[in-house]
Design goal:
The chain has about 725 residues and is mostly helical. Helices cover about 70% and strands about 0% of the residues. It has helices spanning about 30-45, 50-70, 70-85, 95-115, 135-155, 160-180, 185-195, 205-215, 230-240, 240-250, 260-265, 270-285, 295-305, 310-325, 330-340, 345-355, 360-365, 370, 375-390, 395-400, 405-420, 425-440, 450-465, 470-485, 490-525, 530-535, 535-575, 585-600, 605-620, 620-635, 640-655, 660-665, 670-680, 685-700, 710-720.
């Protein structure tokens, strides 16, 4: 043991650990005594993490005494020499990991001491020595020690051994995390060293380099060629190893610049990285309202539709807990932030919310005052609630909380009148959305009440007669009407009557125009005064222009009415399953509306007629045989949109009627069909046509309509490989 001397060299008690186990160490060799004490502390640090706090205090005392006696350099060299023994030890060794943590904790401890926090860290069970050095002197000693340690470690940053590079990066990263301020030159050396290791061939080294570089964030200089944030974002986007990307994701500072890059990792190929976005990144961001509406939509859609269940669960938890808490558990505000008018994922998000938080179902109330003053958010909440109750078999809850069918019918009628009277384009969109959601709610209701069923029937039939009704409302209205009508024939009859009433408006407009022209000519015939004759030329020119303008408006109205009729017919055909020839109303519609539309000179009308004809072919095999050549002709001669439509129709027909359509003596040769699809896949310049051909061929292969699959499979595989960037797989 070191003998007691003057007060400048105060003795150290035995429990500090300066007892040397080396028989050659004597009191006349204090440097050996300090070395033995440090070695003993390092030996104890390998055993347990729980003793590290006490060992840091002991090592700090040894450092202070060594500095006071003039052995500061010997202490630093001994410390680093012991640390060198850890460098070649592999990652899986627990003792080495404990030494790394001890080193980091010791640097953190002396940093606290330098800031004057040593009085809070005294151990009551240990005889602490009086620290009489000045704060400035201690701070200088600490800074010299940290600088010496970092400079020593930087020497091994480019070592040949991958284990040494890993340990050096690990120690540097842990020490940098614990220090306060460092010299500018040393900072630049650290930054440059970590930046080089970002391109190390070992992913474990790159991970530690990312952690170390992330500790230096917030210090970017405008004169630097590659700011730290840019280096980290480059690794986040382009590193081939998932653990490196995940390390960047966890350590990247959140800002307006980095947040979009971090959220993009929700589409990462690695499951744990995608899950980390919802488990960590979203919580680090805090309030989801800081994100743009488009980013909220993307993040929710990516998470809820992820192929891995753990990622989906993490996304649901983030939405149902974090996002809902951000709004003070106000579901209506949450829906407002999702912009339900334009959202494609809000419906799915609400379904997951009700599933994850069943307590919300019990607390929801829909009073009459709410139905009298509906907004986009309230009606969407009611519709989502009704759909979830119907889907999960909670009919009793649905009947208890929702109004009866008759009342909903009156509400539909009320908001339909609001829509007709509303001339403001801004509010019209919301009124259309409210009406659409109300009609959707009725599809989840029970129509056993005859009074309510008749009310809904009459209201929906009146709505369908509106020329300006949006297509989305038409689709829901026809679907509800199919459910209200007991028999399919009655449903078809009602729809065709509505189509006929609307189509008759074309004839009435023609009569009105003819009567106006007749009255115009009769008025001219009775005018024979000289003044009238003098002004006849100019009047005729102006009237000719007005008649031309009125003719163009009439043609446009005729096209719009035809398109509306075709869309209603399309919605009807999508909701029936019976044979075409057994339904006289359908045959009449085919002859009077669909076939004339296919022959129309107006391209939109012709395409709508083609679509309806394809749906009719699904209901009748003979009609398919008669018109499949027409669809092939449309593919060969039409523009891109028509080609896509033709491919989809032919594919649906073949899947619906099977190989029987190809094996028929009057049918089309399967080789011709196959060549047509391959032409669309290989020789068309349009990506949309290629995608439609690839998708159709995949369906036909799975349905075993086409059996010669080697060439087709190769073509589909080549298409997918060439267009990976443009394809979006769920």
């Amino acid at each position: 043991m070191v003998a007691k001397s003057s007060h400048q060299r105060a003795s150290m008690p035995e429990d500090v650990g300066l007892r040397s186990r080396d028989s050659n160490v004597t009191a006349k060799d204090p440097s050996s005594t300090f070395a033995a004490a440090i070695s003993h502390i390092f030996q104890d640090a390998q055993r347990s993490l729980t003793s590290h706090r006490k060992l840091c205090i002991k090592l700090r005392i040894v450092q202070q005494q060594a500095s006071a006696r003039g052995y500061e350099d010997e202490f630093n060299r001994k410390f680093t020499s012991l640390l060198n023994r850890v460098l070649p030890i592999k990652k899986s060794e627990p003792a080495a990991e404990k030494i790394v943590k001890f080193c980091s904790q010791f640097v953190e401890y002396i940093n606290l001491q330098a800031r004057g926090g040593h009085e809070n860290d005294r151990d009551s069970d240990t005889d602490m020595m009086d620290v009489d050095d000045e704060a400035e002197s201690a701070s200088t000693t600490d800074s010299r020690f940290v600088e010496f340690l970092l400079q020593h470690l930087l020497k091994g940053i480019d070592a040949k051994s991958k284990v040494v590079r890993y340990r050096v990066c690990q120690l540097l990263a842990s020490v940098v995390q614990s220090v306060g301020e460092i010299d500018d030159d040393l900072f630049q050396e650290l930054r440059s060293a970590f930046a080089r290791r970002l391109h190390d061939k070992e992913s474990s080294v790159r991970v530690q380099a990312v952690i170390g570089l992330s500790r230096l964030q917030g210090t970017d200089d405008e004169d630097e060629p590659e700011p730290i944030t840019e280096l980290l974002l480059n690794s986040l986007q382009h590193d081939s190893k998932a653990d490196v990307r995940k390390a960047v994701l966890l350590n990247l500072d959140r800002s307006n610049i980095t947040t979009p890059y971090a959220l993009e990792r929700a589409r990462d190929v690695d499951t744990s990285t995608r899950r980390c976005v919802y488990a960590r990144v979203l919580s680090d961001i805090g309030d989801f309202r800081l994100l743009s509406i488009g980013m909220r939509e993307k993040v929710l859609s990516w998470g809820l539709n992820d192929r891995d269940a753990s990622v989906r669960n993490a996304a649901v938890k983030a939405f149902a807990t974090g996002w809902l808490e951000n709004t003070g558990n106000d579901i209506l505000e949450l829906l407002e932030r999702l912009d339900v008018l334009n959202s494609n994922v809000a419906e799915q998000a609400m379904k997951e919310l009700f599933r994850y938080r069943p307590d919300l179902m019990k607390n929801l109330r829909f009073p009459d005052t709410l139905w009298e003053n509906l907004t986009a958010e309230t009606v969407f909440l009611a519709r989502s609630f009704a759909a979830y109750c119907r889907e999960t078999g909670m009919e009793d809850v649905l009947e208890d909380k929702m109004p009866e069918v008759t009342k909903i019918g009156f509400y539909i009628e009320k908001y339909s009148e609001f829509l007709k009277a509303d001339d403001n384009a801004a509010t019209t969109v919301e009124q259309e959305f409210i009406l659409e959601q109300l009609i959707s709610i009725t599809s989840n209701m029970d129509f056993s009440d005859e009074t309510g069923r008749r009310k809904i029937f009459n209201v929906i039939r009146d709505i369908l007669s509106e020329k300006t009704l949006p297509e989305t409302i038409t689709e829901h209205a026809v679907s509800v009407l199919r459910k209200v009508c007991i028999r399919e024939r009655d449903f078809c009859q009602v729809i065709i009557e509505a189509i006929s009433d609307m189509h008759d408006q074309i004839g009435s407009e023609k009569v009105d125009v003819k009567d106006a022209d007749d009255s115009f000519h009769s008025a001219l015939s009775v005018v024979d005064s000289p003044a009238s004759v003098a002004s006849t030329g100019s009047r005729r020119r102006s009237d000719t222009g007005s008649r031309r303008s009125s003719t163009e408006e009439r043609v446009l109205r005729e096209v719009m009415i035809n398109l509306k009729c075709l869309h209603i017919a399309q919605c009807m055909l999508q909701n029936i399953e019976g044979a075409l020839k057994d339904n006289l109303a359908l045959m009449s519609m085919l002859e009077d509306l669909v076939i004339p539309s296919v022959r129309s000179h107006e391209a939109p009308v012709r395409e709508g007629g083609l679509r309806c004809l394809g749906l009719c072919c699904l209901l009748d095999k003979e009609l398919s045989l008669e018109n499949i050549v027409l669809f092939m002709h449309c593919f060969n001669k039409g523009h891109n949109a028509v080609q896509v439509e033709a491919l989809q129709i032919i594919c649906d027909i073949l899947i619906s009627h099977g190989r029987a359509l190809l094996d028929d003596e009057n049918g089309i040769d399967s080789v011709i069909i196959q060549k047509m699809f391959l032409k669309g896949l290989n020789k068309c310049d349009s990506f949309e046509v290629q995608f439609a051909a690839a998708l159709s061929l995949s369906k036909l292969l799975m349905a075993e309509v086409i059996t010669d699959d080697q060439e087709i499979a190769t073509a589909i595989s080549d298409f997918v490989s060439e267009n990976k960037a443009r394809l979006k797989w769920n």
